[in-house]
Amino acid sequence: MSNNHDSHSDSNFDTISITHSETDSDNGASTRVHRRPSRVNTDVCFPMTEAAYKTGGLDFDALEEYIKDENEKRRKEQRRRQRRLSEPASAFLKRPNGKYKHYEGNEHPTESLYRFTFYSTAYSTVHARSLAEIPPTGLTLSDMIKAGCWWIDVLSPTDLEMRDFGRIFGIHPLTVEDIETEETREKCELFKEYYFICFRSFDQDHYSPTYLQPVSLYVVVMKEGILSFHFRPTPHPSNVRRRIKQLKDYVTVTPDWINYALIDDITDSFAPLIRTVEFEVDSIDELVLILKESEQTDMLRRIGHCRKKVLGLLRLLGNKADVMKGLIKRCNELRWDVVISNEIVLYLGDIQDHIITMVQNLNHYEKILSRSHSNYLAQISIEMTQANNQINDILSRLTALGTILVPMNLVTGLWGMNVKVPGQDKESLGWFVSILTGLLIFAIVGVVIAHRTGIV
User: Fold this and answer.
1) Domain residue spans in the chain?
2) Domain boundaries 55-94+104-268, CATH class
3) Distance of alpha carbon 142 from the chain centroid
4) Of 40, 114, 257, 396, whose CB neighbour count within 10 A is largest?
5) Cβ–Cβ under 8 Å, residues 352 and 383
6) DSSP per residue, 53-81
7) How many Cβ atoms from other residues are within 10 Å of residue 303's Cβ?
8) SS3 sequence, 250-277?
């Protein structure tokens, strides 16, 4: 009796948690908040079913069942919209209870709907709002996947979609969790039927407030296909599809080649930025010691901005060489019948060399900027010392002038008081001329002494 009660309580707990999640979703809350579902079978330690290891980890029955459910949901949504359109006009005049969604940056309502992109060597590229919309009339997604090498790119997958992907494609719960939580550490992990790569790019929109911010790309490479996930728009998938279109008559497109092309495109995206940094560093290094005082007002700002960019690039490129090294090392550990070809390994090694070169260049630029920063501060200190010395020279001259004029002012000031002036009872100007001559001689002697001592 007690066991039945406990089981009933656990079941209720799961239901309450799910209902709460749905309520939050209806109220417009972000689905990214619910990272830990309460169902036991979604735990990372829950064992995978045997069906997950069929046909290279892909369960076609689960895939068709998922598409069937998605089509049913879409039909219900269409019927619901038709009922809303058939309502009387007064219903549209009511004040809406919800809030309008605000789109920022380059985001657009119609563009954000097409989050799924399917590519196959046997079919053209298809953009869709869900997996169910990918296959055309008369075909199933299973048939399209079986036709040849395939690639599914997903933008901003939800937690529910990731769990469905894990169930359909046999993705390990640890991989699903890394993608759901948007794991930031770059790595390469090898599983039974696939290998998983987390590789980071950056926001390349110069006008975006998140420019140069990291953008993670998660790639699941299987024997016959590849899955890629990212939570922000990035040009790399479209660049790779364009490259495939240009080279499909000359190369054999495989999942490993698509994975290499993605990594290569991400790595190449750093080259223009590093070249810009190189020009800026050379300019700073040449101008920091020769600019005039009026032209040095923004030098410290330029140095600080350039160092910030260099450190950001080093943070993005820091672990990529280790990821490539691990990927090349594990190529021979794959349990597939067809391992990664030696040609792909050579290409991956070339990418590793490029990454190491870029990191070395950035470290060199950082040293140059650090030296330029020190030189700039030293030059500022020298200029301040020179200005202080000039002020001290002026003050010394003023002091010497005051030392000469104060005694003269004392003598002449006494005559303005009620004292007896020498020679005031005589009509001649002898005393007056004698006193002026004495003051003049005193001033000349004081100037000569100050000049000899270096004061003036």
Assistant:
1) 2-34, 55-94+104-268, 280-392, 393-452
2) alpha beta
3) 37
4) 257
5) no
6) GTTTT--HHHHHHHHHHHHHHHHHHHHHH
7) 20
8) CCCCCHHHHHHHHHHHHHHCHHHHHHHH
Residues 273-292: tens digit of each pLDDT: 999 999 999 999 888 877 76
What is the SS3 assignment for 229? strand
Helix 236-247, helix 255-268: angle, nearest 10: 120
- Which among 76, 67, 77 has a CA at the least distance from the CA of 161? 67
If you ran DSSP here, which 8-state letter would residue 188 be given?
Answer: E
User: CA angle at residue 117 from 111 to 123, to 5 degrees?
Assistant: 130
Q: Is the pLDDT of residue 272 over 90?
A: yes
Q: How far is CA 89 from CA 78, 84, 122, in A?
A: 19, 10, 48
CA atoms of 41 and 112, how far apart (whole Å): 31
What's the mean per-residue pLDDT of the chain?
Answer: 79
> What backbone phi and psi angles, to 5 degrees, belong to 96?
-70, 145
pLDDT band at 35 (very low <50, low <70, confident <90, very high): very low
Distance separating alpha carbons of residues 334 and 194, to the nearest angstrom: 8
- pLDDT higher than threshold 80 for residue 82: no
pTM above 0.85, yes or no: no
Nearest to 362 by CA among 304, 277, 283: 277
Residue 437 has which token pair?
């001559």
Instruction: Give the chain's end-to-end CA distance (angstroms, integer).
Output: 109
Contact 295, 262 (CB under 8 A): no
* Sheet arrangement for strand 126-128: 126-128, 116-120, 150-155, 225-230, 214-222, 194-202, 187-190
Distance of alpha carbon 448 from alpha carbon 456, whole angstroms:
9
* pLDDT, position 53: 46
d(Cα 219, Cα 109) in Å, to the nearest integer? 26
Quick: pLDDT tens for 190-202: 888 889 999 999 9
**CB-based contact 24:34 (threshold 8 Å):** yes
